[in-house]
Amino acid sequence: MDSRLHYRTCHLCEAMCGVEIQHVGTEIRAIRGDKADAFSQGHVCPKAVALKDLQDDPDRLRRPVKRVGEEWVEISWDEAFSLVEDNLKRVQRDHGRDAVALYVGNPTAHNPGALMLLPALVGSLRTKNRYSATSVDQLPVMLASYQMFGHQALLPIPDLDRTDFLLMLGANPSASNGSIMTAGNVMGRIKAIRERGGRVTLIDPRRTETADSVDEHFFIRPGSDAFFLAAVLNVIFSEGLDRIRRLTVPVAGADQLAALVRDFTPEAVAPHTGLAASRIRSIARDFAGAERAACYGRIGTSVQEHGGLAMWMIYAINAVTGNLDNEGGVMFPLAAIDLAGISSASALLRGSFDTYRSRVRHLPEFGGEYPCATLADEMLTPGAGQVRALITHAGNPVLSTPNGRKLDNALAGLDFYCAIDIYINETTRHAHVILPPTGPL
């Protein structure tokens, strides 16, 4: 049988690098970067090469299994679906619709089939107990987008290929491949900024892998990003450096924002951030004075007490300096599938905040979801509305969400748990039925 080449996109992270797969029948001989891919231009990381390991892994589930005591037994798809249907209906009939919870993991966002069909599953369950990896990742970014732009999926990303000044907070693209940046070979693109005479500045309390590839790295006290960003805005307004007039989008509230940050001078925030006032002023002036600049924050900025405020102010800095949706700044992508456009008619998909609260800790919903930090509480606290059944899709919340030990204990007491996953892991080991999707290739 002749060797053939198959071209596809690696879906293991947001960078979406093109890959060239050499195979003979179903045997994979090699996986390389696709040099003809206009986006990634041949770049891949070890994850793309590992697609072969995932595809061929003997531990990957290929047929449905059910747990019998401590053993796993393969069953037919018909039996698996019947078990899931009967038990979910039983729990909701006996305890109400909210007695079934749904947790959606990160890989869902990289799978078109899941993106298209998961909403149908959500709609059929009609439960308020919905959770996802969003609340331990990018929820503050989406909340800022919802409140500033009117839609949770309107996420402007830095135009790395044309910017003159990239200011990053709490981001480590060397490890993440550029999360909420969608840039193949992100470190190559960051290197290109410097090679064309631009500047890359990193604000991070940790000496990360990325810190070795930027012009300057300044340590900041953990959790103080909002103070730093407020001081940057203070300098921009107080020194008349704003360039809102450059924007092609309508802007409201600039005067109110200037008033809100009036007392947050660099001198006032320096003790809180650990950054010298002169350093904060210098960064603010240089950013505002750059012809094209992009301010970008990621998970380190999101997962702190004032993460939502910090992400909102990052957007504000880009806006008041004229770098929102302008070349070289942060731009709204022209996506192949316009999720914001096709979902604008739906309030659920457009976003919502605090329209109802969780039963135990009274935490606000966002986009129809509760923070996953309270999922275990909803399982362990008796009373009307207690979660008694669960569906997880491509997620391992015992390992990836707060207080995994508590969740681990809670899962053991569920009446029924169905996992959609290719592995038995720290979370799915508690499932009564596991439905495996097809492999990565």
Key words describing this protein structure:
441 residues, alpha/beta, 7-stranded mixed sheet, 4-stranded parallel sheet, 18 strands, 35% helix
Kindly summarize this structure in a few lines.
This protein is an alpha/beta fold. The protein is built from 18 helices and 18 strands. It has helices at residues 46-49, 51-56, 77-95, 112-125, 139-149, 173-176, 186-195, 225-238, 254-260, 266-273, 277-289, 299-302, 307-320, 339-343, 347-350, 375-380, 397-400, 404-411; strands at residues 4-9, 18-24, 27-33, 65-68, 71-74, 100-104, 130-132, 157-158, 165-169, 199-203, 216-218, 293-297, 330-331, 353-357, 364-366, 389-393, 416-420, 433-435.
Describe this structure in words.
The protein is α/β, with parallel strands linked by helices. It is built from 18 helices and 18 strands. The chain has a seven-stranded mixed beta sheet, covered by helices on one side. The chain has a four-stranded parallel beta sheet with strand order 11-10-9-12. The protein has a three-stranded antiparallel beta sheet with strand order 1-2-3, with no helix packed on it. It starts with a strand and ends in a 6-residue tail after the last strand. The mean pLDDT is 94.
